[in-house]
Structure formats: structure tokens, C-alpha cells
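In this section we walk through a basic example: taking a raw amino acid sequence and producing a predicted 3D structure, encoded as C-alpha cells. The instruction is simple. Fold the sequence below.
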Amino acid sequence: MHEGNFVLKADDVGLSVKLIDGQFPPYDQVIPKDNDRAFVVSRLALLDALRRVSLMSSDKTSGVRLVVEKGKLRIESDNPDLGAAKEEIDVPYKGAALQIGFNARYFIDLLTEIETPEVRLELSGELDPGVVRPADGTTFDEAALRTRCREQLARFKVPARFVAVEAFPTVDGPNGPKVQRVRLRAMAEMLLREGERTRPSELRAGLRRR
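The resulting C-alpha cell sequence is shown next.
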């Protein structure tokens, strides 16, 4: 740590990261803790229903309505250009009726990542946020999250390999030097083809001969 920066050095490589001043936002304050309208539903049944109903939702918002009544959960969507869709699922709910809107795409992504057979939906009002939890009470596991992230790296297009060069190829621009991305990509591809033992100086010499 040095003057507001996190500095890491190893051999002839250095990394400096500017630390942000201030406290992390209190995100937990926006997560409801006293939603009184709760019920358990089959994760796969809800996931499949959302996928089907969302076909009729708007391309921009992917909005669907969840209508909760005694013993029933109804998922609805309508689109003036396509029509309407509705599905019902039996749920053990005995509270007051409630209608609330969600983005189907986000809901589907969430249910896809949960692995328990059932989920617990906790709702409050039509304009209030809801909470979705694994029905078996599974809580956050930091080690499991790290493992999950490593397994999902390819989905998020995180680089699987890194190559090192002594200097970026640049060209003078109106606001200073600019990295030549095409040339840099060619350098990386050549390095990968020729093997990790290739030295960056040899690589640049090969590029100059082209």
C-alpha cells in the first residue's frame, strides 16, 4: 500500500491499482427482511413457465406479471403485436392476493443458478422488491461462489490465457500514443503459436520482418 495505491511487484513486472476512497454502499439495506407474503414453489415448474410466458413479453423489458392468490401462482404477459400468455402453478399460499411485475430475463437467470428443487418467494407489496431463496435454507457460501465463478469463466468471456510482451505497439494520435490493437492481437497470436518460450524481443523482430 502506498499513497492510496495497491502496488504489487514480482521480478520485472509491476502492478499499481488506485484505491477508491469511501465506504462500500450498504447494499443489504435494500434487501427486504420482513416480507410477509411468502410461499414455496417448484423451481423447475416456475422456470419453465417463465420461459414460455416470456415469449409474449416485450423485447425491451421482458416484463411479466406474477399474480399470487390462495393456492395459485399465475404468470402472465401480453404484447399488442404478438398476443398474450398465461400459466398457473399450484402453490401453498393462503395470504392476500398480490400482483407484481418482474423482468423475466433476470428471474430466469436467477432460477437457473439456484440448484435446489424448490425456491421460496418472499413478497410484500406491488412496488416493493421481492426475495428469492433456496427453499432448503441454503445460505451464501464464499468458497462455493469462488468455485462456481471459476467454472463459469468461459460464459463471461474472461481470458483463459495471458501472454506477456515487453511493450505495447503504439502509434501517435491527436491525444498522444494509441495502442495498435490489431498489431497487439497479432503479437499475441504469434506468441501462442510459437510457444511460451518465445521471447518478446524475438516476437517483435518477427513482426518487423513481415
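Looking at the output, two observations stand out. The longest helix spans residues 181-194. The longest strand covers residues 72-79. In the next section we compare this with other chains.
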